[in-house]
Write a structure and sequence with these properties.
Blueprint: E1 2-6, H1 16-24, H2 28-36, E2 40-42, E3 45-46, E4 59-63, E5 83-86, E6 90-95, H3 112-119, E7 143-149, H4 152-163, E8 168-176, E9 183-187, E10 190-192, E11 200-201, E12 208-209, E13 212-221, E14 224-231, H5 238-245, E15 261-262, E16 265-266, E17 272-280, E18 287-291, H6 296-307
Parallel strand pairs: 7-17
Antiparallel strand pairs: 1-4, 2-3, 2-4, 5-6, 6-7, 8-14, 8-17, 9-13, 10-11, 10-12, 13-14, 15-16, 17-18
Length: about 300
């Protein structure tokens, strides 16, 4: 499998092995072995140093050998999709909670990309065979609006919008506890945990990147708050990490905060929903906004919390 990506402004100045490990969702030691074997290139030339400093616009390619956990071919699967917008350039969908975006170790099939490969006549080639056209992603248990590019031109245009932070992203989250003020800004840099590379944190000895979340309260309940969160940056797990750091973790988040019950109610998953996504169409220049209501389990939990007074 060949994975290719362009270094964004957020990742400029980072180490080659660290960024490759993040993009390929593997260990840094594993990436270092690939670099030493000549399987990683920058701007078309083999990388010679694992600690190479990356510059804005560098194009990195990783030749990942197949493993027993996942192949290098995206298998089409007839999985139901809720399509919000589609043309020859891109597709916007409502990703349900519980659906993984693309294949990786542990879930080689049954992903959003398997469904899109079945539905779409073509997808962008950028991103590699297992995640063609993927310019952003949502966590497995986060629901909501996603966009995927169908052409390489659309991919690069959308990727630049994300890098330039001109994308509109509005999330809804049910968080633990009652917020003491109506709105605020969480400005806390995020990096990988010292003890668990799959976790992100505001407290780490590793390199941290700026992360800013604007939020406001929509409704207060007994022991919980419904908040709107708007991202200025788009770090991994940003909303989950930021609210956990303030003492108000997302309800049902088993990784950050572990508040899986409130008022006697069992919460089976993290209550986080990407409600609105706004982009500029890569070909027409038109502003496209798509919004979707929270899924049934989240809406039901809101009603039950409301009923508790």
């Amino acid at each position: 499998m060949n994975l290719q990506f362009t270094v964004s402004a957020d990742d400029t100045g980072g180490r080659l092995d660290s960024l490759c490990a993040k993009m390929a969702e593997t260990s840094r030691s594993g990436i270092q072995k690939l670099i030493e074997a000549g399987r990683v290139s920058v701007n078309g030339h083999p990388a010679l140093k694992t600690n190479r400093t990356l510059r804005l616009g560098d194009v990195v390619s990783i030749d990942i050998p197949p493993t027993n956990n996942s192949g290098d071919e995206l298998v089409p699967e007839p999985i139901r999709l809720e399509i919000l917008f589609e043309d020859d350039h891109l597709i916007m969908v409502n990703k349900p909670a519980g659906l993984v975006v693309y294949p990786a170790a542990g879930h080689p099939r049954g992903t959003l990309m398997n469904a899109l490969r079945h539905h779409c006549d073509h997808l962008a080639s950028v991103g590699g065979p297992l995640r063609p056209g993927v310019v952003h992603r949502l966590d497995k248990d986060t629901s909501g609006v996603m966009v995927v590019a169908k052409t390489d031109e659309a991919y690069h245009h959308l990727r630049k919008q994300f890098d330039d932070r001109t994308i509109t992203r509005r999330y809804l989250a049910l968080v633990h506890g009652r917020m003491s003020v109506e709105s605020g800004v969480i400005d806390a840099a995020i990096g990988r945990s010292d003890s668990d590379r799959k976790r992100m944190t505001t407290r780490t000895r590793h390199e941290k990147k700026q992360a800013v979340t604007h939020w406001r309260v929509i409704e207060l309940f007994r022991g919980a708050s419904l908040v709107e969160a708007r991202l200025k940056t788009g770090r991994t797990h940003q909303i989950r990490v930021h609210f956990a750091a303030t003492g108000h973790p997302v309800l049902g988040d088993a990784v950050y905060g572990k508040k899986t019950r409130v008022g006697g109610l069992e919460i089976p998953r993290q209550m986080l929903h990407a409600e609105t996504l706004g982009i500029i169409h890569p070909a027409t220049g038109e502003e496209i906004f798509r919004s979707v209501a929270p899924p049934a389990d989240m809406a039901e939990l809101v009603e039950r919390l409301r009923g508790m007074g």
